[in-house]
Give the backbone structure.
Amino acid sequence: MDGSNPPLPYSLQNLARFSCILLMAIAGKAHADFTLTAIESNAPNHAVGINDSGQVLGMYFPESGNATYLYSPTTGFQDIGTLGGSNTGVGGINSQGEIAGAGFLNDNTTAHAFIFTSAGGMQDIGGLGGNSSASGLNDLGQVVGSSYSSTALYWRAFIYTPGSGMQELGTIGGTTSLGTAINNAGAVVGSSRDASNRSDHAFLYTSSGGMLDLGVTDGFVSSYATAINNSGTIIGNLRSEGQATHVFLYTEAGGMQDLGTLNGAVASTASAINDSGEIVGSANFSAFGFNESAFLYTASTGMQDLNTLYSSLLVSGTDSQAGFVKLTEAAGINSKGDIVGVGTYYDGFSTSERGFILAAEVPEPSALLSLAGGLCWLATRRRRGHSSPMTEGHEAGTSKGDD
């Protein structure tokens, strides 16, 4: 050893080691803190989607009818308008903040799918000869949905591509199909009647392979795909003869897997999946549909009740403290793990339905963090310069005499 890295004084060695431990603690803490925010509006509202910029898509319900909103912490609450009629409904939001949905035209009878952009406003994208509704879009502006076909005389799934227009996707053999989601590769999922016209099956549509029947698992009669991520993982719901509903996960390698229900629930439905494979939805603990809880599913933890995971963020609803009493449905999740949905909100006097944002709160770097990082690096550097005879020359990324 050439003495170019003399040992640290004992007290500094301990401080450096402590700094490494502190760094690990901070790194773990960075993903542990969440905030729960209510979306304020002049009427009850539901949040249904969120992109990676934190823009939230939702619906609110004034006396005049259903309306669509775009919300972000920086710009606030924005009603995105109509196609001339009284009602609009939401479909999805992409990373640019573009929105797909449906709205009534001036006659308040005809409904068409739309795409909304901040620059161009709401654009009517028409239909297949009849009413239409959009349920999702990708980052290329491709829209998926369903329309009544004037040629087939049934509802059919469609894909709309800017510049090319609307294309009917057909069925897996039955009369009807419904499109629900699309990823950035242009893969579409939804459901279609099978050849017997007695059962619905989830499908995957690609331009190269056409419409693939994803089938059902044992014990169920129907399946409905609700979302697909950019890895091609598909989620949806299974229904039995007795109307029991389970969540399914489908991959090309593993096929369709029944994920069951939230513990103690009679039914669970999946709404969204992010690119990490995290799934959100709602579980019902009553056959009559009046006792719902939002859930989060991961491969490592299974299905968990958000009300249990984040109980410290809820209020009792029995005193003057305002906040959410219960999170009833999780409808969207972005790649950061931020979740949106609807819950029961208590304002100190009464309760109402409000959209929520459950967001990870990541601390900003501080002087303490920078100092800890520097001392930790220094300790690692010194150890590498004074390795023992048993490890000298065999440490990862180093060779004897590197220093």
